[in-house]
Structure formats: C-alpha cells, structure tokens
Design a protein that fits this description.
Blueprint lengths: L1 H17 L11 H5 L6 H13 L3 H28 L8 E7 L7 H11 L3 E5 L3 H10 L1 H4 L2 E3 L9 E5 L3 E2 L13 E8 L2 E8 L9 H17 L6 E6 L7 H8 L3 E2 H4 L24 E6 L2 E9 L6 E8 L4
Parallel strand pairs: 1-2, 7-8
Antiparallel strand pairs: 1-12, 2-4, 3-4, 5-6, 6-7, 8-10, 9-10, 11-12
Helix pairs in contact: 1-3, 1-4, 3-4, 5-6, 8-9
C-alpha cells in the first residue's frame, strides 16, 4: 500500500507545496493549487510516518525533506511571535475585520465582538442594507460613532466604523478592487493611521487574471504610501499567504498581523457549522500592517457567515 499510494501522493504534495513559489499571472488554475499549499503539511507527515513504518527509507527521506519545509515556516512564525508580543506599550489600536457573506453574518454578534474585544476600528465587507440596519439596531454607533462607506443590495459594499474620528486619507487613491474597497485616515491619539479595506475578486478560473492584477495593483499602492506612515490594510483578500502575489505586500514593508503574532495557520474560510475540527481550511481574511507593532491577533466566529472574523491588537512602533 505504501509503494502504491504513498509515492504518487508525495509527488502531488510536493507539487502543491512548490506551487507557492510560482507567480504566473495568466494561469487559470494555479491560484487554486497554491491555496492548498499550507493544507498539505498534515498529509506530508502522514506519508513520512507510513514510509518509516514500512522501512521505505528513500521515500521516508523525501517525505522528511518536504515536512522540514513546512516545519521551517512554522518556526519562523514562532520567532516573530517572540519578537513582537512585548510591543504593547503606548496607545493601542484594535482592528476587527469580517466578511458578512451577503449580509448573513449576525449583526448582534459583530457588535458583541466589538464590545468584548474593545475594538477601535471595524472593517466589514458584503454589507447589505439589512445587515446595516441590524448593526444600527444592535448599537454599533454608540460604540463606534464614526463611519465611512454605504451598504448595497449586492456583495460589493465595504464599510468602516471607528471609535476615533475619520478624515480623508492624504495618500494615493486605492486601485480598482472588484468587490469593493474603502480608504480613510483614523485620527488616533498617537497620530493618524491610514486604514484601507479591500475585497478583491475570487481566483476562480474565469477571474484569475483579474484577481492577480487587483492584488498586484494593491502591492504597488502599498509601496506608494510614504515611509513612516502607519497603515492597516484589512479585508477579505481572497488570497492566502501561499499566493506569491499577496506576498508582494511584504516587499512594501507590510506584515501579516496573525503571522507576526505567531498564529501559524489561522484559517478563516470556509466555516461549516458543526464541523469546527475540519473547517475552515484556508486563510483568506487578513489584517496587514506597516509601521505598527503587533501585540496579538486571532479569529472570531460570526454566526451566519462562512468566514471567521479576524482581529489584531496593534501599537505604535517602538523607537
């Protein structure tokens, strides 16, 4: 069984893992393969154990090498955690980002999460008129009185609610984003923070090229924001850290807040009620930050939505 099944399985796992380093803007199916690059860590270890038990040493060696690639990435995240978690001095900014899945996410649960986490900045995508009305009824304006954006009848609405006043962001305008975007400046006690919320199209075969272009343009925008300006870039990116085009944000100085906080694979989609041990499987919802220290980060269940919400506690950078 090991000879028949494990060898071709290991080849497939290696191809999926290696795909995360291939950036092909015109590929229709590669983005879907790349999205699974982190998921294959567990079956890789299973092949290693099976090959070792069957004394297939060459196969075990190959599986061990592939497992080491996944383990190395995990160690890197833990090192970032040790460096960043003591960065909580000074004024903090708690950010919560959620996809309401066509307005199905429970507005009362969102407001309760804002209370529980003492959220300062709430970023929402797929806000319908009904969801917006539910947020108002649940008391969102009493907690976060400043807002920008408007609900819509479709899934293209992006809204931002803030404890602190908002003003026009004095930075380049965001590039076009398929499912909506919002750009504002948060007038925080420690100084202005640029807040951008985005929702690119999905990387399905018919939209893959557009998806790649939108994310590439976001990376160009990120690099255009003047150095030293604190920026929060949040939302449903429809991309995982295994997509090279999303990792271009790192070239512009941005860090994934959850990785900086040591959350190795905070999967956010798809959430299937009753299957919490098996879902979600990929991380497509993110809080990306620049010129801000990450104190902590995590995920929250929002009943009604197939996405987990993501939150991050941020602080001014240490000098």
């Amino acid at each position: 069984m090991v000879d028949t099944l494990a060898r071709p399985l290991l080849v497939a796992l290696a191809l999926v893992t290696g795909s995360r380093w291939i950036d092909a803007p015109r590929s229709r199916f590669l983005p879907l393969l790349q999205a699974l690059a982190s998921v294959v860590a567990a079956p890789t270890w299973a092949v290693l154990l099976a090959a070792t038990a069957a004394r297939r040493w060459r196969l075990a060696g190959a599986a061990g090498a592939l497992a080491a690639v996944h383990a190395g990435r995990s160690v890197a995240h833990r090192r970032r955690r040790r460096r960043d978690t003591d960065a909580g001095s000074g004024d903090r900014l708690v950010v919560l980002s959620a996809n309401l899945q066509h307005g199905r996410g429970d507005p009362a649960a969102i407001v309760e999460a804002v209370k529980t986490r003492d959220v300062d900045l709430l970023a929402l995508v797929e806000v319908t008129h009904e969801a917006h009305a539910g947020l108002l009824d649940a008391g969102i304006t009493a907690l976060l009185p400043h807002a920008t954006g408007w609900p819509r009848t479709d899934a293209r609405a992006v809204m931002v609610f803030s404890r602190n006043p908002l003003r026009r962001a004095d930075v380049p305008t965001l590039p076009p984003v398929g499912y909506g975007a919002a750009l504002t400046a948060v007038v925080a006690p420690s100084g202005d923070v640029i807040a951008a919320v985005v929702h690119p199209v999905t990387p399905l075969p018919g939209h893959a090229s557009r998806w790649h272009r939108e994310l590439a343009d976001l990376a160009v925008w990120a690099a255009s924001v003047p150095a030293g300006v604190p920026v929060v870039l949040a939302g449903d990116f429809n991309a995982t850290p295994d997509h090279p085009v999303l990792r271009r944000l790192g070239d512009a100085g941005f860090r994934n807040a959850h990785h900086a906080a040591g959350r190795r694979r905070p999967a956010t989609w798809p959430r299937v009620p009753g299957l919490s041990r098996l879902s979600p499987i990929v991380q497509i919802d993110h809080v990306q930050v620049r010129d801000l220290d990450v104190v902590d980060a995590g995920t929250l269940v929002i009943p009604g939505s197939d996405h987990l919400a993501v939150w991050a506690e941020l602080a001014p950078p240490r000098r």
